[in-house]
Specification:
five-stranded antiparallel beta sheet, alpha+beta, Pseudouridine synthase, Structural Genomics Hypothetical 15.5 Kd Protein In mrcA-pckA Intergenic Region, Chain A, single chain, 7 helices, eleven-stranded mixed beta sheet, 17% helix
Length: 320
């Protein structure tokens, strides 16, 4: 997978097919390149061997952008079976793109897209919002490759929360992810900059979350009085005024971390809605750092880990 400023998962090398004779063109040359198939193989591993200088994701993008043809017919399936005597042609025409605003793509294939979303960008518009969103930008992005393509929401991050999130590229994959979310997602953790020094270095928060008429979530300690929510936290750094926590979710409720931090008396920095008294960041102090899951179609284990935003560390450099 292509490396960027965000950490990305390590991937096992695909089984390599036997060498095939390259007929025209060369890496770095202009024009299409054609390759004879000598032995039976799947298309993606075949291409990975021929383009060893490219990342796995870059090779996948050739298929996604419909730049690969087998015997003159465009093919985008990773596991397309190749037979001896066929010819694979790779075009070098680049798809015109428009810069993505407030997000970057960490991974994409024919089934899903994983992104890093900046704080301040809506995941998807509400009935009252007509602004730029991650959903709208990704919809435009995939439709430049295929006008019939669509994007489907799997989960959301609050507008002011940054970090890793994913979208499905078909309704079938969306349903697979949402129906088996607890089994498919193997790790989902955040970092939260909260007000005050936490008394315990780690803890478990449990309550039942309800929503008021003003759309504010709040916690109830009465069993079954709302949606059951469990959050775990561990202190990474602490000062007299702030704590940096690693937060993992056992359940995924609306505003769960924000409500639970308020519940233990340490609201997330900048979260005036849930009890914060100041904002040294100029944004919400919540970042979705890790998302690991089993691919709903291939079964491949994927893990995406991003860096802790540098401003989150500022209180610990300046405060004893």
């Amino acid at each position: 997978m292509k490396q960027s400023k965000h950490n990305t998962p390590s991937r096992k090398a695909a089984k390599q097919p036997s060498p095939a004779k390259k007929r025209t063109g060369a890496p770095g040359s202009h024009g299409p390149k054609s390759y004879d198939v000598r032995e039976a193989a799947e298309l993606l591993p075949f291409l990975i061997e021929r383009y060893a200088r490219l990342s796995r994701n870059a090779v996948k993008s050739l298929l996604t952008r419909k730049q690969v043809a087998v015997d003159g017919r465009i093919v985008s399936a990773h596991n397309y079976p190749l037979q001896p005597g066929q010819t694979v042609t790779v075009g070098e025409r680049q798809v015109e793109t428009t810069p993505l605003v407030g997000l970057s793509i960490l991974h994409e294939d024919e089934h899903l897209i994983v992104i890093h979303k900046d704080a301040g960008l809506l995941s998807i518009a509400t009935d009252k919002e007509e602004q730029v969103t991650a959903y709208r930008q990704l919809t435009a992005y995939v439709r430049r490759q295929d006008p019939k393509q669509r994007i489907f929401v799997v989960h959301r991050l609050d507008r002011d929360t940054s970090g890793v999130m994913m979208f499905a590229r078909s309704e079938r994959v969306q349903q697979l992810l949402q129906n088996d979310w607890q089994e498919i997602v193997t790790e989902r953790s955040y970092v939260a900059l909260v007000e005050g020094r936490v008394r315990q270095q780690s803890g478990r928060i449990e309550s039942w979350l309800k929503e008021s008429k003003t759309l504010r979530m709040y916690a109830s300690l009465r069993p079954n009085d709302g949606q059951h929510a469990i959050t775990h936290y561990k202190a990474l750094q602490s000062s007299r005024t702030h704590s940096l926590l690693e937060v993992t979710l056992e359940t995924g409720r609306k505003n769960q971390i924000r409500v639970h931090m308020e519940q233990i008396g340490h609201p997330v920095v900048g979260d005036k809605k849930y009890g914060a008294t100041g904002n040294i960041l100029g944004r919400l102090g919540l970042h979705a750092r890790v998302l690991a899951f089993r691919h709903p179609v291939s079964g491949e284990a994927l893990r995406f880990e991003t860096a802790i935003p540098k401003p989150f560390l500022k209180p610990f450099r300046e405060t004893p």
